[in-house]
Each structure stands twice: as C-alpha cells, then as structure tokens.
Amino acid sequence: MKNKKESIQQIIRSDIVNGLIKPGQKLPSIRMQSQRFGCSLNTIIGVYQELENQYLIYSRPKSGYFVVAKEALLPLLQTKRIDFASAAPDPASIPQIDFRQCLNKAMELFETSIFTYPDPQGLLSLRQEIVKLFQQQQVFPSAQQVFIFSGAQQALHLLAGMPFPNGKTNILVEQPTYWGMLAALNTQRQTVIGIERTPDGIDWVALERYFQSNMIKFFYTIPRFHNPLGTSYTAEDKQRLAELAKANDVYIVEDDYLADLETDSKADPIHAYNGASHVIYLRSFSKVMLPGLRIAAAAVPTSLIPLLQWHKHAADLSTSVLSQGVLEIYMKSGMYAHHAKQMKSMYNHRIKHLGEISKRLLPKECLYTTRICGGLFASIHLPESIDTEDLVKRLENRGVDVLATDKQFLSSFPKLNLLRLSIIRTDEQVIEEGIRIIAEEFERAQYTSSSPKPFFRL
Question: HTH gntR-type domain: from which residue to which, for each copy (predicted)?
Fold first, then answer.
C-alpha cells in the first residue's frame, strides 16, 4: 500500500480533477488539512509542494495555495474513458468484412426463404451445424432437440413463462445473476426464489431443500464464468447438480453463454453429466460475434419440444432467416472457429491480467473473486461503510466506467456491495490504469467514511 503522504496527495488531486475544488479556489490551510487527515504539518507541506510541481496548484505569498486556471486543468479532464462496464464486444475486435461477405452469400443462398415463414424452431441446416458445435462441448442432441432463438433473452423469456412437464410453477435463481433473466421473470410476474452463490459455490443443503419442497419448475444457473462473479462450478458441482435435478424432477436452465472462451478442455457443461434429460442447454453468440444478429441456440429435453415449439411460434413466428443464414455460412466456412479461437486467447489474456493487477493494487478485502480462470467478468467487494453510488460517480468523473450489481439481485434478496468489472473493451494498459484509479478512489472513500464530516466536504 502507498504511504500516507501519497494517499493524501491522491485524494486532494482527485478533488481538483473531479471539480470538488474549483479552478481559482483557495485550498484549505495546511493546519486544517493536517487535522482532516490526522498527520503532521510537514506531511501536508510536502503534499502541496508535489501538487504544485504537477501544475495543479500554485502558491501566493502570505495568501495560501490555489487551484490553477481551468485551461491548465483541461488536459486532465479530457482523458479517454476506461470501460469496465460494457458486456458487448468492441467493434474493432469483430471482422466486419467477413460478416458482410457472409451476409451477401446468405442473401443469395436463402433468397427463397426470405419470402416465406420458415420453421419457428430454426433452419434445419443451421440446427445441424449447431449440433456439431454442441458436440465439441460434450452435448449430444439431435437436430430435432435444437431450437434457434432471436437472442438468448427471447429463450429466457419463453422458458420463464411456459408450463413445464413437471407441473411445477416456481423458479429458482442464483443470487446474484444475469440481470436479463431477472427482467424476464419480473415482466411475467413469476414466483422467484433466490439462492446465494458465492465465489466458493452454492449452499447444497439449501439447494436440495428447495428442490424437494418448493415446487421448483427450473433452476437457472450460469455454471461457467458467472455473470457477475466470474467464477465457475467444479466438475463435481456440475455432476451433483445434474443428479439432484433428475432425482427431484427439477429442470435446469444452463446458460453457457461463454462456452467459446473455455481454456480447460475437461470443463464440460452440466448437460454432459448424468441428468441431461432435465437440462436445457443454452448458448449465446453475442460475445464473440455481432450482438445485433440476435441469435442463440438451445438443446432441450425431448419432453419439452412440443410445448416450446408452440410458444416459440406464438412469440415471433420465426427467427430472422438472414441472421440464421449468416451464422450458418460463418460456421460452415470455418470462420467462426477461427474467430472464436482468437477471441478466447485475447479475453483470457486480459482477464488474467486483471486478476494480477487487482491482487497487486487493490486491498485484499476488495478481491471478492480471487480464482478467476477465464471469461469476461470479475467482482470487487466493497465494505458496507462505502457509498457505492458515490464511488461509481467518482470513478465516472475520472473516466472509469464500472457496473454496480444492484440490478443483478432480486429486490427481496439481500444485496452485496459489489462492482462488476468487464475486460471486453480493454487492453493491458487500460486495465492497469483503471485498477490504479479504482484503488485511489477506494482509498479516498475509506477516508470519507472515517473522517470527521466538517473536514471533508470543503
């Protein structure tokens, strides 16, 4: 950790850059600052001298220290934003020329289908390609068990609202979880129960009790690279989940949205274990392809096919033929496998760098997820004494965007003070600079929560 002098310097510098102390405004006296921070006069004198060397403040003989004019501060206020909040790929990482070629080819090959309403379940030729992709993850459905959706959000919305063969009505979700699933459940006013998921996993005693006694229709889980935690279930966890679901006639909706980013060849999904008859395996393509294509695919148990066919047809008649055609051509040409491999390497490198930098620069108590082994997300845990909304705003003012996880909890469930960090629109340099700023603002927030109020807001 930095020594006290450096910490105080960063806090006052942040006050200036964020506009809490205006250009031309006089700074508090050296004596007032020493009382505010509980340090010696010499420490504050050293801080002011260093800020003066950085051209942030200047001294007037017998008058004190003042913030420099706005024009001199402008370069500090015009820094490029550091985006830890986005979950959509950087356009620069997407081979748009390849997609245009696939789109043109799709217009040619699927011209007849464009003028009809195709199979609501999806183009058979694409479903056959999806079967091959799923087989690489040790998921072995028939083409008849594969459904193509207009994005994973549509799949979640339909599954949440439709009846299931087990005749049960309640839905169990991890807490926290993907906000889109909670939104789908909220709009349909489903009865939803939350179960805590920590970096160490889930409470198995509570899970089994819910499965046995709470009329659970399905359990929604993100076993791989959880959003927002970033953690994954172990092989033993996945097998246990599959067996519990089958034994208690509870379906599992397995959201494997980042399967393409897995670096461990032995990390199979829940569907691969005993109990696949009760697992709905859902895959999205938005993290390695264009989110605007709005394509997702699922492998479902045979018992669900008739019900899901009807609900899919009622929702949109059919998923866009052009989007399906683009994905099919992209997959058949080998471009998908090539691009996914590149994205996996890039994202894996970034998330590891985030973990290393976080361990080096952030206090240990902030590292909520310390075992990140891939994916896009990690979480920072803030003490209850820190105002998360205020910290997010301060980071925003300094050009760093992060996501508070309030919307990833049920309204009735106790919320953790978490910030989600995404590496999808970053690089090594940006990650290091962003974590450094977060560390500075975290330290500043700690001073805020512990300092006497009259000495803080000046």
Answer: 2-70
At 32 the three-state DSSP class reads helix
Q: Are 160 and 190 in contact (CB under 8 A)?
A: yes
Q: Assess if CATH 3.100.10.10 describes domain 97-333.
A: no
- Give the range with max mean pLDDT: 73-77, 163-167, 292-296, 440-444: 163-167
Q: What span, in angstroms and rounded, lies between the C-alpha atoms of 347 and 341?
A: 10
For residue range 298-353, what is the model confidence (pLDDT) as tens digits? 999 999 999 999 999 999 989 999 999 999 999 999 999 999 999 999 999 999 99
The residue whose two tokens read 């996501």 is 403
> Distance between CA atoms of 331 and 136, rounded to whole angstroms?
13
Q: Which residue has the tokens 């019900």?
A: 307
174 forms beta bridges with 195
d(CA 21, CA 88): 36
- Residue 325 is encoded by which pair of tokens? 């055609």
Going by C-alpha positions, the residue among 409, 369, 388, 370 that lies closest to residue 196 is 409
pLDDT digits (tens, 9 = 90+) for 420-451: 999 999 999 999 999 999 999 998 887 666 55
Please work out, in degrees rounded to the nearest 5, the angle formed at the alpha carbon of residue 127 by the alpha carbons of 308 and 124: 90
CATH number of 77-91+337-454: 3.90.1150.10
Among residues 267, 281, 277, which one has the least CA distance to residue 237?
Answer: 267
Question: Exposure pattern of 412-424 as b/e (b: 16+ CB <10 Å)?
Answer: ebebbbbbbbbbb
> Does the bond joining 120 to the residue before it have cis omega, within 30 degrees of 0?
no
Cβ–Cβ under 8 Å, residues 175 and 306 = no
422/401 Cα distance (integer angstroms): 10
All structural domains of the chain with their residue ranges:
4-76, 77-91+337-454, 97-333
Report whether CATH 3.40.50.720 matches the domain 4-76: no
pLDDT per residue as tens digits for the range 128-163: 999 999 999 999 999 999 999 999 999 999 999 999
User: What pLDDT, in 10s, does the model give residues 35-60?
Assistant: 988 899 999 998 998 888 777 888 88
